[in-house]
Amino acid sequence: MSAEAKYRILVVDDDSDVRNTIVECLSDRYEMVTARDGRDALEKLDQLEPDFIILDIKMPQMDGFETCTAIRKKNTYQYTPVLFLSGYNSRENITQSYGTGGTLFLPKPIDSERLRKNIDIFFQQSPPSLRPKKMTLHQLQIISKTDATTHSATAQIAASSPELSESLVASKPVAGAMTSPVLPRILIVEDDPDLRDMVQLQLMDEYEVVGAVDGMDGLAKATTYTPDLFIVDVMMPKLNGYQFCQTLRANPYFANTPIIIVTAKQSAKENELAARMGANAFLTKPFDMTRLVQLCQGFTRRPEFHIRPKAVVIELPKPEPLPVPEEPGSRAFQREEAQSRKQRFDF
After folding, report:
1. Strand positions, DSSP E, 68-207
2. Which of 18, 231, 287, 331 could serve as a FRET partner for 307 with CA atoms 20 to 30 Å apart?
């Protein structure tokens, strides 16, 4: 097995210390992913795509036997190896482990060396097929971190601003006297002020444009300004673009609002990750402003697109009046000509 292609092992245990111990023991030679209990494992199974499963027996809500039975009902995982762990090393537990579809059984407390040796020998003697994965381990780690940070950010918002926290999960944004603007409204969530200003200048002829300095500011302005389209950078402080997308999609009001993700990374995997997080389009830095305009037009000119009523009105900048040229024979014109000649010859 090459260094690039490793078997992926899923550890399912409600004890975080046990999960961490197993991950630390095996991560030098296998890709390690975890689930906190049986239900969590079943929900994430198709996303994690494990080649091997380590399963605790005694867990709340759904024990290891029930979890294994449910896993075996999925065609993709009908023959995936399952190693049972249990603090009860009884004949009954061992018999039931193999009876529900288990492949191996080890008692707790875990002997790291014994665990590693059993798994290594199994892969050497009965190597399962190494299935290609839809997502890399790095991408799965991003999603896991995103989920955790999103919950943390939501709690942080609730603590610092109960009104914003309530509006994030409400069916509608901030209430007020609603108006019907003529132009679609775009929210640009970007921590680089130069890029944010450049995009605003490029779009302001066709759209109402609002800027946000980071993900947290973007969430606050989303509920205030009711944008019809979002342009979101990925790498931002406080709340990154993927976390912003996930949090935004949790609000039914913004569940279908178009989101354009902007990132410095370019790959099919990154595109897929952006789509999983809720983005509708993907743009790689540095990008052509013409391409950005085309993407915005593509969304706002669709038959199903509509401009939502707004509670907050944006005052569009008024063009400066052009100066009226003086008549050649007027005194003002003569004064300007004299001043111009003076400047040309004044050394």
Report:
1. 82-86, 104-107, 185-189
2. 287
Number of neighbours of residue 239 by Cβ within 10 angstroms: 25
The pLDDT assigned to 320 comes to 55
Give the three-state DSSP class for 97. Answer: helix
Contact 190, 221 (CB under 8 A): no
The pLDDT tens digits for 21-63 are: 999 999 999 999 999 999 999 988 988 999 999 999 999 889 9
Residues in CB range of 313: below 8 A, 6 or more apart: 179, 181
CB count within 10 Å of CB 51 equals 21
Amino acid type, 315 = E
**Cβ–Cβ < 8 Å for 6, 29:** yes
Those residues whose C-beta lies under 8 Å from the C-beta of residue 243, and which sit 6 or more positions away, are 146, 149, 150, 153, 215
Q: Which of 76, 59, 48 minimizes the C-alpha distance to 13?
A: 59
Q: What are the CA-CA distances from residue 57 to residues 13, 63, 67, 87, 94 (Å)? A: 8, 6, 9, 8, 10
The DSSP 8-state label assigned to residue 179 in this structure reads B
pLDDT digits (tens, 9 = 90+) for 162-203: 544 444 544 445 445 556 678 999 999 999 999 999 999 999
State how far the Cα of 303 lies from the Cα of 130, in Å rounded to an integer: 45
Q: What separation in angstroms does the CA of 109 have from each of 4, 36, 85, 161, 164?
A: 32, 18, 9, 45, 46
End-to-end CA distance of the chain: 81
pLDDT digits (tens, 9 = 90+) for 273-304: 888 888 999 998 888 899 999 999 999 999 99
- Pair 10, 48: CB distance under 8 Å: yes
With CA atoms as reference, report the closest residue to 7 among 97, 83, 109.
Answer: 83
- What residue ranges define each of the domains in the chain, with the CATH number in brackets? 8-134 (3.40.50.2300), 140-300 (3.40.50.2300)
